[in-house]
Input
Amino acid sequence: MTQGPDLSVEALDEAAAALELERLAAEICYHDRRYHGEDAPEVSDADYDALVRRNREIELRFPALVRSDSPSKRLGAPVASGFAKVRHAVPMLSLGNAFGDADLREFFARLHRFLGQDGAAAERVVAEPKIDGLSVSLRYEAGAFVKGATRGDGSEGEDITANLRSLEEVPERLEGKAPVVLEVRGEAYMTKSDFQIINARQEAAGLKVFANPRNAAAGSLRQLDAAITAQRPLRLFAYAWGTLSGRPEDLLGDTHWQALQRLKAWGFVVNPLSRLCQNQEDALAAYRAIAALRTDLNYDIDGVVFKVDRLDLQARLGFVSRAPRWAIAHKFPAEQAVTKLEDIAIQVGRTGALTPVATLTPVTVGGVVVSRATLHNEDEIKRKDIRIGDSVVVQRAGDVIPQAVSVLLDKRPADSTPFVFPTHCPCSLSTPVVREQDGAIARCSGALACPHQQVEKLRHFASRGAFDIEGLGEKNIKAFFDRGLIATPDEIFTLAARDSEAAEPLVSWKGWQKRSVRKLFAAIEARRRISLQRFIYALGIRQVGEATAKLLARRYRSLAGWYTAMLQAADERAAAPETGKAEEVGEAYAALCDIDQIGLSVADDLCRFFQEPHNLAVLERLEAALEVEDAAQSDEGGAPVAGKTLVFTGSLKRMTRSEAKARAEALGAKVAGSVSKRTDYVVVGADAGSKAAKAQALGVAVLSEDDWLRLIGETA
Ligand code: IVH
Output
């Protein structure tokens, strides 16, 4: 943006001042956008500050001219922190996927297995289009909209109240009788036609164009300046709820379908294509009907969501990991396109796995430009006979990385070249590559010394599900690593202190300014307090993803508790001969394997991590630099079965074994498959076999089904 010579503030008359305030509002807004929205500032901090100062001085002289969109009205927010965080009291979950009719039938079969005789009733489901936008939460208190948030990682999102307020389809007040608290959830999106208009506008203004409506909606919603969001035509379909000041049945009705009507009556837009299906066949037909409309709709959808209609059955089905058992997303088939494979590059992951990645002639697949696609591994390249120079079919499904699926052999050029998989890591150390015994995965044997792996480990550590440090993405991590500033995760937390004494502090680097440095250091500071679950996940231990990290945090509660237990398990494992029996390795190792969903292989990877002195050194330094919060007691922490280990055996009358197990776990208990001296209770149904006998022999408490129901507070 250009700027003429500034007249001194004293010299301005009222008309000139009004014009000048208008110009400054636009200009400051523009720079805010470059800085916050696009991370590409054009002016120095000093120049920016001068604009803000001038705006303020003119406003002081002409208070009557202060504009409603004046920058002075929104500069109060601390720049470094971006959006405030919002905890979701009821987590915002994701959905399990079905990729074909067979998967959908399996979903229904699971409902039957879980609910037993009530399975048939659960076949009545609501089918809703799966909107390709961003899920948001809208909190209403006494009928008034008070807080809006993004989904974030599901447990914690960002406060975008001001932005959501500008959406016409977010009612400011609920119509009719409103609950004391109602948190509505839905999808914010942009229509295809509005997307075209916005992009034309962006292009005309020389600004970045968006790749697809979803990105345009995301970019518009995550604006620090709500005035920008207000100019973007965003819309919203409501489809779920979170916190309620009462029982869902009382506030929303007995079924999901009724709840949707209730949402409509309060003033929300509910997707008009949603329909009630009486059974599986109906559901499959609904899928086809919605799929047939897909291309004609003015908004993107990427599948059909099915939700068990009866809310009481939903409650019984509950959740597994991060998705409800009572819902599933039947995704549309992946979109494909043909393009040329120009080259194959090798990427080294944080565990040293070498992944071949195709460089493609850019092609649009389902509205997104794709220029790279994963080829998975060497065997896949051979199996598909993919060569450099080939025409390949690439596909994209949802958020997953684009893949090269096949080769068009009749288009193969004479000079296409087979790819020779490297025998050495592409890193500067050129470490030999090893093949895992039975796996197709090639791994760099350099472990902690390989720079690629180190950078990837750091990137993972700072990434969204882990420490979530804003501004510490791939590019900056690589730059800090290459200049020797950060080699291990703990060094992230000493960066600011070292920078203050550095000969070449960050502000002197190209592309960095006082504000961006301040912002980064503040983002790092903000993460010195971290949940145990995120901490464990951040370490990047093989096979320890978010779900496993959560299991470990829940089980061991504190960093000290986990650390001690892992060290002991690692010692036991190191001393034990190769054996498939956890019991024979030792107490701590067996306890680890006893955690539901953690098998020997995950336990071994944990032990390997704790056998490595370098890892222990990093852990100790992290522990000193951070405050790792103990895992919260689960909501039902007071339940008499919380923390206990149960075994179910025989068939139960009132619920299936699956449901009983899920109920016990929801109450904080651990359900094991076999009876040992660590078992607290064995619940014995009809026709129980050896487990009941073993319990008796070991002196473990044996409960009947009725005892069990009483224990969890249900009348038998
Ligand atoms: S229900 C507990 N319904 O899909 C279930 N989600 O893959 C919560 N989405 O994060 C979600 N359309 O952003 C639901 N009709 C719909 C949806 C929908 C789109 C998105 C939502 C969610 C994601 C899960």
Summary: The chain has six domains: 9-75, 96-331, 334-445, 447-527, 532-629, 645-711. The domain at 9-75 is CATH 1.10.287.610 (Helix Hairpins).
